[in-house]
Amino acid sequence: MADESWMVPTPVQELVAAVEEPPSRYVLPEQDRPGSPSVTKDIPEPFPVVDLKRLPDDVAEAAKLRSALQSWGLVLVTNHGIESSLMHDVMDASREFFQQPLQERQKCSNLIDGEWFQVEGYGNDPVLTEDQILSWNDRLRLKVEPEDERNYALWPKHPECFRDVLHEYTSKTKRIRDDMFRAMARILELDEDHFISQISDKAPAFARFTYYPSCPRPELVNGVQAHSDAGILTILLVHNEVGGLQVQRDGIWYNVPPKPDTLLINLGDVMEIMNNGVFKSPVHRVLTNAEKERLSLAVFYGVGEEKARELGASLLDV
Ligand SMILES: O=C(O)CCC(=O)C(=O)O
Ligand SMILES: [Fe+2]
To answer: Nearest to residue 208, comparing CAs of 76, 108, 73?
Structure first.
């Protein structure tokens, strides 16, 4: 039988302990490496930070949001309704999960029979071809919406609070999603419920916890390869403000500065289609770091397959 072990790489967390250099499967072709030859800059100040609670009544705040979504497709939000203690709790729970021995983490594995990828669970993203360049991260991906489709068998049992904390966190991010929908509809002079009414109660959402171990040669690899998110919008929380996220515009990569207690919201491809391209779905990537590990939690909101098909969007992760 053909050797198909390439389909199931060793978790990066285990790899780092064993190698001094990233293995060739992680090394980017020269032209795609961070910093070369493309230019990297810091996002020009002031980077858009929007107060979510003030959006409905404050024209200046809404103008900031419009400009951020038109020029970057992403925005940092404050006053979003998630207490800083809950932000810490969800990240601590995630860190505790990744700190467990491999055998424990694999109880949530995204492989069926140790071989076939499923969309949920712990591991790496699907490896589709033998020459695919791998990303320097391990992740845990869980369906959080609709709630009755959660597969709790894949949710970590340790730490014990994991389930409750993630539930509380995602019930709040859903409210943020809806606040953003209403704000975008108002900006576009549509009925306030325009976007909300198009999204069914059965629309899916996934939480993705990503762990980026520190990398001995960050200039050779990507933490996450360049991509745009497929769905409607993504709400991102980064632990301890470790940088690394970059967004591309006009061929230039810009560093996105993380800020304490803020969430980063970026739009996805389906949203770009739904608003006729006024607001962008940004191409972004994550770089690694020689000194620090990085931990993030992204909650991806989609429209569901039926609506995506109607809109002619890609059916992946919607
Ligand atoms: O970890 C991050 O900062 C972003 C990850 C990301 O872009 C993704 O998972 O789609
Ligand atoms: Fe992304």
So the answer is: 108
Q: Which residues pair with 234 in a beta bridge?
A: 266, 300
298: Cβ below 6 Å to ligand 1?
Answer: yes
281 Cβ below 6 A of ligand 1: no
Decide: 220 in ligand 1 pocket, CB within 6 A: no
CB 216 within 8 A of CB 289: no
Which residue out of 284, 293, 318 has the highest number of ligand 1 atoms within 8 Å of its CB and is therefore the one to mutate?
Answer: 284
Atom of ligand 1 at shortest distance to CA of 285?
7
Rg (CA), the chain: 19
Query: H or E segment at 234?
Result: strand 233-238
- Angle value at C-alpha 264, between 52 and 147, nearest 5 degrees: 85
Q: Could you report the predicted ipTM of this complex, rounded to two decimals?
A: 0.99
pTM, to two decimals: 0.95
Atom of ligand 1 nearest to the CA of 300: 10
Question: Per DSSP, which regions of the chain are E strands?
Answer: 40-42, 49-51, 74-78, 111-112, 116-117, 121-123, 138-145, 205-212, 224-227, 233-238, 245-249, 252-255, 263-267, 283-286, 294-301
Give per-residue pLDDT as tens, 45-93.
Answer: 667 899 999 999 999 999 999 999 999 999 999 999 999 999 999 999 9
Nearest CA to ligand 1 atom 9: 298
Query: Which residues neighbour 277 within 8 Å (Cβ) at sequence distance 6 or greater?
Result: none
- Percent residues over pLDDT 90 in the chain: 78
